[in-house]
Amino acid sequence: MRIGVPRETKPDEYRVALLPAGAAHLVRLGHEICIESHAGAGSGLDDREYIGAGAKIVASAQDVWENADLIVKVKEPQPSEWKFFRSGLRIMTYFHFAAERALAQACVDAKVVAVAYETIRDAQGSLPCLTPMSEIAGKMSIQEGAKYLERPMMGRGILLGGVTGVAPAHVVVLGAGVVGHNAARVAAGLGAQVTLMDVNLNRLRYMADVMPANVTTLFSDQETLRASLQTADLVIGAVLIPGARAPRLISRNGLAQMQPGSVLVDVAIDQGGCFETSRPTTHQSPVYIVDDVVHYCVTNMPGAVGRTSTFALCNATIEYVTAVAATADAAALSNHPLVASGVNILDGHVVHPAVAAALNQK
Predict the structure, then answer these.
(1) How far apart are CA 12 and CA 316, in angstroms?
(2) Range(s) of the domain holding residue 144
(3) Could you say which of 25, 31, 69, 96 is catalytic?
(4) H runs (alpha helix) in the chain
(5) What CATH number should be reported for the domain holding residue 232?
(6) Which pTM value belongs to this model?
(7) What DSSP letter does each residue of 135-204 carry, written as one string?
(8) pLDDT in tens, 45-69
């Protein structure tokens, strides 16, 4: 199969979808690999490394898209790339269709085969391609939140860990999954007082066992959340329903409960965001203020640490790219034991139940 890797076009996206080692692996299996020139530059990967792995380097994205049977990307195709869609073209990437209706329609109209990393499940029911990016985003959420709590960045002027005789910041993490777990660990490690909230009591019991003493676990309901917001300096939105739109946990009215200069970091923004006032932002312009509350809603947080993210991503995805490339009949992907859960769009139809529900399609 001819596999193409274009350079990412989303603003401030420095990841690349295939490592030279991955290219060499696919070449050994008999596939042809075509990489757009400088696709790996943001991750510190030189074209010569790909050439040494047996890949072909081409000058333009058009050359990659038009000559590939399978396109492997990191972020959702941008509108400038939709013109390359065609019937039967396979695309593997993070699509996040629940928050990208126009993209979903473009894929349906063109009858591309859309395999979304974020909905692939393994035999244990976990999300192996999403997990490494969630780990990075969870850790970065505290790093970025701490920065925007600084007064010159429009925050409250709070040091996350406090100092002797001065109380630390109160960090509220909504969701105890992979993002929430990593966010809570980093915040606690910096000395913050952390409240970790979820509706899954079994998950909370596990978190209570593994977290340090400055992390308190709470069952999430409206009254408990409202009380936590009143003392929160930093709130991390870390909820996920795979394939579906993120639930709205904090309304516009809920901001009135928060202290001026407090910070919201919405890691769920790729799936539409879990705060009513959330809207996508970029690394170049990451924050805005609503009702005196700082909102950080960057849609590709891991892209800022491109080298770390690329290696973590490709370590997780190469198995699934290999499986898709090895399957001659696209229709067979919907029953493939490894990648069936990742097939979101096939033959002009949205076939993933959660994605279809989010898009109001049957």
Answers:
(1) 22
(2) 133-304
(3) 96
(4) 20-28, 47-52, 61-67, 101-110, 131-148, 178-189, 201-210, 222-231, 306-326, 353-358
(5) 3.40.50.720
(6) 0.92
(7) HHHHHHHHHHHHHHTSGGGTS----TT-BTTBPPPEEEEE--SHHHHHHHHHHHHTT-EEEEEES-HHHH
(8) 999 999 999 999 999 999 999 999 9
Nearest to 265 by CA among 287, 292, 242, 240: 287
Q: Which residue has the tokens 């139940």?
A: 353
Q: Torsion angle, CA of 208/211/215/217, rounded to 10 degrees?
A: -20
Question: Token pair for residue 88?
Answer: 């039967």
User: 221 and 328: one domain?
Assistant: no
Three-class secondary structure of residue 272 per DSSP: coil
20-28 and 306-326 helices cross at what angle (nearest 10)?
10
Cα–Cα distance, 76 to 132 (Å, whole number) = 17
HSE at residue 85, side-chain half, CA atoms within 13 A, is 25
Tens digit of each residue's pLDDT (9 = 90 or more) over 318-352: 999 999 999 999 999 999 999 999 999 999 999 99
Query: Of 25, 198, 270, 295, which residue is the catalytic one?
Result: 270
What are residue 148's phi and psi, to 5 degrees?
A: -80, -5
Compute the half-sphere exposure of residue 361: CA atoms within 13 Å on the CB side of its CA: 19
Please say which residue of 281, 304, 327 terminates a domain: 304
Residue 115 near residue 90, CB atoms below 8 Å: yes
Handedness of CA 290, 156, 255, 279 (dihedral sign): positive
**Torsion angle, alpha carbons of 57, 136, 300, 333, to 10:** 60
Residue 155 to residue 337: CA distance in whole angstroms: 48
Q: What is the pLDDT of residue 362?
A: 60
Question: Among this protein's residues, is 270 annotated catalytic?
Answer: yes
Residue written as tokens 């380097």?
Answer: 57
Residues contacting residue 203 through CB under 8 Å, at least 6 positions apart: 176, 177
Separation of first and last alpha carbons in the chain: 32
Q: How many domains is the chain built from? A: 2
